[in-house]
Amino acid sequence: MTTHPFDAAVTALSRNAWLPSGEEVALGKEFFLRRDTLQQRLLPGMPACPDPQGWVTQHVFWLEDVVGVIDSLLTAWRGYLPDSHMVALLDEYAHQARPAVPYAADLRRAWEAEDFESCSVEEAGWWEEWHVPGTERQALDALTQRMIPIGAMVVAAVDRGQGAL
Q1: Rounded Cα–Cα distance for residues 25 and 154 (Å)
Q2: What DSSP assignment string belongs to 32-89?
Q3: Cα–chain-centroid distance for residue 158?
Q4: How many other C-beta atoms can be found within 10 angstroms of the C-beta atom of residue 121?
Q5: What is the C-alpha to C-alpha distance for residues 43 and 24, in angstroms, rounded to an integer?
Q6: What is the tens place of the pLDDT at every residue in 9-68?
Q7: Start-to-end Cα distance in the chain
């Protein structure tokens, strides 16, 4: 029976069979540092959203950026930590966010086709309602919900590994 690397990481962490190494802790911490400092991106000419959560489009771009952060980190770290559970956790986190990458490109193309130089908050809201329909919002919510427990496992792994250092 083959075990998925993510499942093996979760099992090892929950059974206290994995004590993350200093390098794994450093990778996890670097991920959180980069993820937490990502800037919210707007489409060119799109006004800031009056809602503190921002536009759905901003969340899609954030997911795209998270994938980019993880991809660059894993490119640099995978050779040092080839069978690492931390790599498996981050790989799964990116896997869950990856469907947002082509969707972000679709949204950029749709915005460019409108040829907006700028628009009002109301117009931006209408544009999002049209281009990010309810079914897409539900899919993004589900994707985000699947990422939360994976992120929690990364936090737990970093905490456990730091406690041992």
Answers
A1: 9
A2: HHHHHTPPP---TTPPPPSSTT--HHHHHHHHHHHHHHHHHHHHHHTTTSTT-HHHHH
A3: 17
A4: 14
A5: 35
A6: 989 888 999 999 999 999 999 999 999 999 999 999 999 999 999 999 999 999 999 999
A7: 34
Question: 15: which 2 tokens?
Answer: 């059974």
**Any idea what DSSP says for residue 79?**
T
**Cβ–Cβ under 8 Å, residues 143 and 96:** yes
Residue written as tokens 């499942």?
7
Would you state the structure tokens that stand for residue 151, as one six-digit string?
A: 């992120």
Contact in structure between 150 and 10 (CB atoms under 8 Å): no
Alpha helices in 3-42 (DSSP H): 5-14, 22-36
19 DSSP assignment? -
Q: What is the largest CA-CA distance in the chain?
A: 56
What number of other Cβ atoms are within 10 A of residue 80's Cβ?
A: 12
Q: Which residue is associated with the tokens 């952060």?
A: 69
Using an 8 Å Cβ cutoff, are 24 and 84 in contact? yes
Give the chain's radius of gyration (CA, Å). Answer: 18
CA-CA distance, 73 to 30, in Å (whole number)?
A: 8
Query: Residue 20 and residue 161: Cα distance in Å, rounded?
Result: 5
pTM score above 0.85: yes
